[in-house]
Design brief:
about 280 residues, 12 helices, about 45% helix, globular, Luciferase-like domain-containing protein, Lucif-like_OxRdatse_MSMEG_4141, Luciferase-like_dom
């Protein structure tokens, strides 16, 4: 990799990130700040994170190919590289059928988008691809630094590593709730998962992992919720996170639920202490 990601990163959507949280996460030793959602093509939110920190890597997870013009994204990449050399990784992806009226030929759209990034001289080693299924996972290995799976399990990580082979980036995201009351933790998890369990790319992937119709009903079964959102003490959560590393991940990307802004820092500090 042309950028150093570290073993652990932190993922949040733009409205949750801010200078104080970004600087705090860097000071705690996390290797990458991941900008979730669908960052705009100007990559201004990524620029804010880079300017708020000293050396940590910033990545997008992910820029939506349907919403962000490849040429503008490439120009923004080059601007960030000039201002903050070696610190930015461009994550791109196809987004969701349910959110895109013109969602057609998704695989061909990904290929065309990557072709446009090639033409604009965005280096292969400085971009990554949102990938869940086998075909796009293989494409991520062939055309980018590697894969950024979201809403997965260690078993998916194991399967993905087998498909990708060695030397290809694999950085899955996993959600956590630092809460020892199981019912409270599951309630927080279900509130967050509600918007994801109606999206076909996620449910199709989870079905490949053995989940069934009953698991998606009523906000998600306990089995599904517990697999997708780790909860408990920092020690208990760390065991679940490191299972991804044991399954072949290069980095595990942590998303803490249940708090906002700087209030997230104590949880990330507790995890960092254990993960070290």
């Amino acid at each position: 990799m042309a950028v150093e990601l570290g073993r652990f990163g932190v993922w949040h959507q733009p409205h949750k990130w801010g200078p104080e949280l970004a600087a705090g996460v860097e000071q705690l030793g996390y290797g990458t700040l991941w900008l979730g959602g669908s960052p705009t093509a100007d990559l201004r939110d990524a620029e804010v994170l880079l300017a708020s920190t000293a050396a940590v890597t910033v990545g997008t997870s992910i820029v939506n190919m349907w919403k962000a013009d490849a040429a503008e994204v490439a120009a923004s990449y080059h601007r960030l590289e000039e201002d903050h050399p070696g610190r930015f990784l461009l994550g791109v992806g196809i987004g969701h059928r349910e959110h895109t009226g013109e969602y057609k030929t998704p695989y061909e759209t990904i290929v065309d988008y990557l072709d446009a990034l090639d033409e604009a001289k965005v280096p292969v080693e400085r971009r990554a691809l949102a990938a869940l299924g086998p075909r796009v996972l293989k494409l991520s290995a062939a055309r980018t630094a590697g894969a950024l799976p979201y809403l997965t399990t260690p078993e998916h990580t194991r399967q993905a590593r087998s498909l990708l082979g060695d030397g290809v980036l694999l950085a899955p995201e996993h959600k956590v709730v630092l809460e020892t009351d199981v019912e409270i933790a599951r309630s927080i998890a279900r509130d967050y998962l509600a918007g994801y369990l109606v999206l076909s790319n996620y449910t199709s992937n989870l079905r490949r992992l053995g989940f069934e119709d009953d698991d998606f009903a009523n906000g998600g079964s306990d089995r599904l919720v517990d697999a997708l959102v780790l909860h408990g003490t920092a020690v208990e959560i760390a065991e679940g996170l490191t299972a991804h590393l044991e399954a072949g991940a290069d980095q595990i990307v942590v998303q803490q639920l249940g708090k906002e802004g700087p209030d997230l820092l104590p949880g990330y500090e507790a995890l960092a202490t254990v993960l070290r």
